[in-house]
Amino acid sequence: MANSKPLPTMLIIPTGIGCDIGGYAGDAIPVARLLASASECLITHPNVMNGGSLYWPDPRIHYVEGYSLNLFSAGELFLKPVRQQKVGLLLDAGLEPDLKRRHLQVADGCVASLGLDIGPSITTERTLRIKLKKGLSGSSWGSIEEPDVLLRAAEKLKKAGATAIAVITRFPDDGDDLETKLYRQGNGVDLIAGAEAVISHFLVKHLLIPCAHAPGLAPLPVNYDLDPRASGEEIGYTFLQSVLVGLSRAPELICKSVMKSQENTLSQVETFLSNRDLGAVVAPQGALGGEAVLSCIERFIPLIIVSNPGVLNVSSTKMRLDYSSGHKDKNILYAENYLEAAGLITALRDGINIKSLRRPIECSKELNDE
Fold it and tell me: Can you say whether the dihedral through the CA atoms of 48, 179, 20, 281 is positive or negative?
């Protein structure tokens, strides 16, 4: 391992689909740490790294919003590592004064205790009115009733010098009580995660700078039957801490068209990450229909499919990946868990033939002319 180069790896665990690992705030951080150790370069999204009050900064992990990952995987976007982002705060006018003050105090704390560069901040001119919804599959999603208000505030932040944006919107407290109870007990889907993805996707699409979302919610009463995976969401007043830490070192997003129009030295370009650098992508079995995964499949980037059940059933069998002629052994790999996925990444990184690790080993076959 000492002589092997990093193997840039993309880890995807889609938002709001109730995966056993990654279905809660921050419960996939140990997986990200493990795969970052195996690859020495991990690209993943806020759903994996946001742990509410808990976070884990790691220079080997690149924090990239989901819409950006889609563009990156398609070759439309480059990632430029940075030392520090200037994170602007976008606050929903619907936040009550005390709840708004709690979020501003988190920002002050991150400056004072962690040395982050936070600011400026702005409050939207009107309440954004977020609606939470659930699809037929059981996955969560949502809508923004005032998207123009959200975008205007974000544009002002960018113009004022923010290079990344943390969005805090007031989410409804009158959600499905049964769903919330099941979720807190470890048996449900995160009802707010889908709407969070809609908000961040919308802003990145229009501004092309790193964005992530933290929901503004009233604290819940203490639950004595709480699933450990939900604990990171219930031990503080806000979810903002991990978002600010992630955005503070999120890579700069460089559009391919901008690259062509600007002069860049070879040394500058070599520091950028592109989809050509990817050595593997890791995604859950059942959640293989996303744009980023499909782009990697099209480019024959090794896909490691991990058993990590959720509510979706877009599996390798349904996508006929199991029958991909000529590419099955080389580009489609299966892992029972993320420990096994880390082993596959290590083998790929060190150039070890996966077949040599399994039994039985097939005999060499001679290629004969017919």
Answer: negative
Helix (H) or strand (E) holding 142: strand 140-144
Q: Name the least confident of 18-27, 50-59, 214-223, 360-369.
A: 360-369
- DSSP-derived secondary structure letter, 318: T
What burial class does residue 35 get, using C-beta atoms within 10 Å of its C-beta: 0-12 exposed, 13-18 middle, 19+ buried? buried
| Residues paired with residue 144 on neighbouring β-strands, in sequence order | 130
Peptide bond into 14 cis (omega under 30): no
Burial of 44 (0-12, 13-18, 19+ CB in 10 A): buried
In the DSSP assignment, the letter for residue 222 is P
Kindly tell me the burial class for residue 22, based on how many C-beta atoms sit within 10 Å of its own C-beta (0-12, 13-18, 19 or more).
Answer: buried
**Interval 260-308: pLDDT, tens:** 656 555 456 668 999 999 999 999 999 999 999 999 999 999 999 999 9
One CATH from 3.30.450, 3.40.50, 3.40.1350, 2.60.40 for 79-253: 3.40.50
The model carries a pTM of: 0.93
From 118, 227, 221, 110, select the one nearest 162 (Cα to Cα): 118
Q: What is the pLDDT of residues 319-359, one digit of tens each?
A: 988 765 444 456 899 999 999 999 999 999 999 999 999 89
Output the CA–CA distances (angstroms, integers) from residue 245 to 64, 86, 208, in the order listed.
Answer: 13, 11, 19
